[in-house]
Amino acid sequence: MTTPKQLPLNALRAFEATARLMSFTKAGEELGLTQAAVSYQIRLLEEQLGRPLFVRKPRQIALTPAGERLLPEVSEAFTMLRKAIGSFTRDDDGTIVLTATPTFTAQWLTRHLVSFHQRNPGMALQLFSTHRMCYFDSDPIDIAIRVGDGNWPGLEAHKLFQTDFTPMLSPALLAKAGPLDHPADLLRLPILDPRDPWWLHWFREAGVPEPDLKDQPPNQFGAQMLEANAAMAGQGVAILTPGFYRAEIAAGLLVTPFPQLSSDRSAHWLAYPKARAGARKIRLFRDWILSEVARDFT
């Protein structure tokens, strides 16, 4: 096999499309070329490589062993090129694509968007509220708000705030329950989502090493804000992050019966690919959220 002096990008592009679609005609339609032009480019590539890449049969084609060997590498190279071009395109537009957990989105981010737009007029946010972990190499995401330890290879991570938690309930349920003099008194009340590991963590740090939760209804809510809604409706006691519910506490919708505040050492982080750290829209959002969070969680 001879090595070409110049990389035959047009011919490689024609080869990749044809091998992927198994059709000269369909490859031409995708590339905006005639079938004859696609066939010509592939023949040029075959001449440069010194071996055939396709077996031409009546009304169908098949890859030769050489073509099968070449295809994965060429496909990967074009995928990387598309991603590189796509990242530059996303960096230049005025929309930040962001993914964050439902509770963070509903209880903090959407409540501060006015501040962001005042500081960055003309910049738009496209929000995806989900617990699913995004993958920057395949998902069209600019920034993610993640919960964890901040150690994600290839990503730049900025700590927003430590994840802490404490029990909360409605004033009406507290009045109905009577005095809660000791953390163990909470066990007289319905515990929302008793399988949440935060409960064991909090009880142990509050001096209740073996809380009896086995008779509690095994409800699971899937999102902290849903537990908070149930708690405000007087359905039971939820274990929540106080920083998300400052407005509800101030309005008298939720109360914290004990001062004990616990943490499982996880935190909320702002994360994005290190390769895109210089993108203007990422810098704008990063600078805004770090300053805004500092006022609410410190």
Automatic annotation (TrEMBL):
It holds the Pfam family LysR_substrate. Keywords: DNA-binding, Transcription, Transcription regulation. Residues 7-64 form the HTH lysR-type domain. The keyword DNA-binding applies. Gene3D superfamilies: Periplasmic binding protein-like II (3.40.190.10), Winged helix-like DNA-binding domain superfamily/Winged helix DNA-binding domain (1.10.10.10). Belongs to the LysR transcriptional regulatory family. Coiled coil: none annotated. This is LysR family glycine cleavage system transcriptional activator. GO terms for molecular function: DNA-binding transcription factor activity; sequence-specific DNA binding. It comes from Gellertiella hungarica. GO terms for biological process: DNA-templated transcription. InterPro entries: LysR-type_TF_proteobact-type (IPR058163), LysR_HTH_N (IPR000847), LysR_subst-bd (IPR005119), WH-like_DNA-bd_sf (IPR036388), WH_DNA-bd_sf (IPR036390).
